[in-house]
Amino acid sequence: MTEYLDVVIVGAGLSGIGAAYRLQTTCPGKSYAILENRPDMGGTWDLFRYPGIRSDSDMFTLGYPFKPWRDAKAIADGSAILRYIEETAAENGIDRSIRYRTKVIAADWSGETARWTLTLEVGDESGAVERREIECGFLYTCAGYYNYEHGHTPEFPGAATFSGQIVHPQFWPEDLDYTGKRVVVIGSGATAVTLLPSMAEDTSMVTMLQRSPTWISAVPSRDKTADKLRELLPANLAHRLIRGKNILTNIAIYQYCRHWPAAARKMLTAQTTRILGDEKLVAEHFTPRYNPWDQRLCAAPGADFFKAIKKGKAQVVTDQIETFVPEGIRLKSGRVLEADVIITATGLDMLAFGGITLRVDGDPVKVSDQYVWEGTMLTGVPNFGICVGYTNASWTLRSDLTSRMVCRVLNYMDHNGIAAVVPQPEGPITERPLLDLASGYIQRAIDQFPRQGTRTPWRMRQNYLLDTLATMNTDLGRTLRATPRSAVAKPVPVA
């Protein structure tokens, strides 16, 4: 018999484990499984192993609202985040519901039976892969938005002539020895900003090569207010207060940058100049053309990035690559950056919903033609939830809201005898990109993702407070088209 589950969650990362917790506690009668393509849980925090891998959001908001963050660092190392995810799964028995080495290739919806049939590739430790099928009533993808199998690496002229080693951070070699070597990191995003100070003490020189400057803000590595609250109050109460404080602070900073960009530029430039003590250096390498939060703001905990430069252990070069040469990289200016190791921190390759092929009653779904409803479901696709976090704040703030909404929809269906729901616009929707940032990795692939609108319930506001009010109070019957159970054929078991 083909196995049937009420809910299938795709992905056992930070979002997937959180989704399982919400499902267990809010919809306790539902059968479910988490299907994870990789051999371990953790998602991003298990995949990336490069030096210094860490969160770029504070852990009081990146962590779960139901599990207090107890470690000292507010901006946490990747290994600490992975332990936190593993602990959450073990404490709640979620780990027993994870099926590893299980990749969802395709999902076919039948309106006749109100079920998804999932085509899976199930592997084992030997590398053998077997195709299987399972069925479910609701499919919820928590697989993030980038491709785990390869990152974005441009075609660099002359790369084959380079005599050293070229590494992409997404696939960091365990045996890479860069001690005493000259390292060039291509890129200026969060990964490059993390790598530079983490490698500086062990290399002879580490250089961040950027095509244009990025906004980088020094932030405290520890939250002194949080430390005091955790010292004085019970863990759960302290966590709620710290989380609320940080949510409000982050919203205020984002809104300040968006509404008063000139003042925000001045504030960030002054901060960087105060740390480095060199106005010319700041003007050349740390004053971007774009405004803060047109792209995601990079964090430097404890100003580690700037301190490594000030100590002379690292440098930033702003120029364009002409070609790789045997000894390193020749720039458009004619300068040659000598290198033993080149790290291509050139960004992510985005992938919608883990690359699952969706079909509804035999017709392929063109995801980019659909609109997102309440940041949770798609038009044209019944009983299908998507988890997309915030771009301007901690991912988990939005992903947890989405999981709560999925559970709310499931309970609404049960209470009203509904077999299937699909978002249905009441009128025309004014289109906006789903991920509204100018970052290169987003712009390269935005046409592969669904769209959002400019008004509720089709808009993702990037504001946790407003989204919480909308998500938990929206009238589900107004914009969800429902199919009653009485209108659905009884599924025929498949041998």
From TrEMBL:
<dbReference type="InterPro" id="IPR051820">
    <property type="entry name" value="FAD-binding_MO"/>
</dbReference>
<dbReference type="GO" id="GO:0050660">
    <property type="term" value="F:flavin adenine dinucleotide binding"/>
</dbReference>
<keyword id="KW-0560">Oxidoreductase</keyword>
<keyword id="KW-0285">Flavoprotein</keyword>
<dbReference type="Pfam" id="PF00743">
    <property type="entry name" value="FMO-like"/>
</dbReference>
<dbReference type="InterPro" id="IPR020946">
    <property type="entry name" value="Flavin_mOase-like"/>
</dbReference>
<comment type="similarity">
    <text>Belongs to the FAD-binding monooxygenase family.</text>
</comment>
<keyword id="KW-0274">FAD</keyword>
<dbReference type="Pfam" id="PF13450">
    <property type="entry name" value="NAD_binding_8"/>
</dbReference>
<dbReference type="GO" id="GO:0004499">
    <property type="term" value="F:N,N-dimethylaniline monooxygenase activity"/>
</dbReference>
<keyword id="KW-0503">Monooxygenase</keyword>
<dbReference type="GO" id="GO:0050661">
    <property type="term" value="F:NADP binding"/>
</dbReference>
<dbReference type="InterPro" id="IPR036188">
    <property type="entry name" value="FAD/NAD-bd_sf"/>
</dbReference>
<protein>
    <submittedName>
        <fullName>NAD(P)/FAD-dependent oxidoreductase</fullName>
    </submittedName>
</protein>
<keyword id="KW-0521">NADP</keyword>
